[in-house]
Amino acid sequence: MVNCRITCIAAKKFVTSRLEFFEAMKIGAIEIDKPIVLAPMEDVTDPSFRRLCKRFGADIVYTEFISSEGLIRGAARSHRKLKIFDDERPVAIQIFGNDVEAMVEAALIAEAANPDFIDINYGCPAKKVAGRGAGSGLLCNPTLMEAITAAVVKAVKLPVTAKTRIGWDEHNITILDTVKRLEGAGIQALTIHGRTRAQMFKGSADWTWIKRAKEIATIPIIGNGDIWTAKDAVKHFQITQVDGAMIGRGAIGNPFIFREAKALMQGIELPPPTFHEKIHVAIEHLKMSVEWKGEKYGVLEMRRHYASYLKGMPNVSKVRDFLVREEKWQNIIERLLEYERDCERYIAEGTFDQLAQTLNDHSKRLVLEPAVIEN
Description:
This protein has 13 helices and 16 strands. By secondary structure, it is α/β, with parallel strands linked by helices. The chain folds into two domains: 31-269, TIM Barrel (Alpha-Beta Barrel), CATH 3.20.20.70; 275-355, Non-ribosomal Peptide Synthetase Peptidyl Carrier Protein, Chain A. The chain has an eight-stranded parallel barrel with strand order 4-5-7-8-9-11-12-13, surrounded by seven helices. The protein has a two-stranded antiparallel ribbon with strand order 1-14. Strands 2-3 form a two-stranded antiparallel ribbon. Helix 4 (100-112) links the parallel strand 7 and strand 8. The radius of gyration is 20 Å and the shape is globular.
């Protein structure tokens, strides 16, 4: 197992002073100063990745989002997503749906899995979700969104939170109204992604609306969107004054971002992970994924992580092309260890930086079904 709390290279002081913490974020019994949170992402935030991110410093992690209808029908895939482990706490189970009774029943099923709190998805922009009136589709029906929230809060004993977007499109920015509605319905915290549903993941997240929402909120606000580096996380806190920062796509193949962000918030800029660490964490992640999902899906769903794990390393494009096509996990590990030896040779020859390649982390040709959904 990789020791995620140790870096071999001495850290350096960051140019700005550490963030001053005035009040810890509270969700039920959970109390954390300025938490850095792992976002719920379909086919990404399974137990293997959540536990890995937790070891690197993620303060709170979320499950993949789970269909209320799937839970009620007893769908094996939906119920499998309920599995949580003590070493990943605090952890939230996130559910989605568009029917009050179904969401209440699903919340009770989720509560029985013993998470630390339950989160309701009002942010997923995917057509298969929003187009059916769930996820961000409920931004077009705020009365139903309010009714679902109030009913779930009343039905369960655990704290309830929600995650949403700033609005449906640029002409319908409704986040300030959403904050008040969901506060009134009894949620204990709200995560806001700074894009509209129409934007999907294009353009830039508008942090100014997150800041405005924080200014009127009486519950903790967690900001989300365009946090790709530790410096982005610190900047997000400084600009928006939020209670927590949630990292989604920036964590894919990069669990190190939590360690780096936590240190930077204390005024310490850590060095990036070495190529040795990147390769061995990728290997550990693959083994955990295969153990949890079996070889077929464990190998398949790891493919979207490799570009980020190996980003900036020499002659990596050919290696990545092999990794995203190979079906045997043992062959993938063998190739990664071979590549580690190649990197050692590049270092000895003085060509490591000269041959470095920056891969496209989210290349369309490497998006695999089922697609990643960061809600």
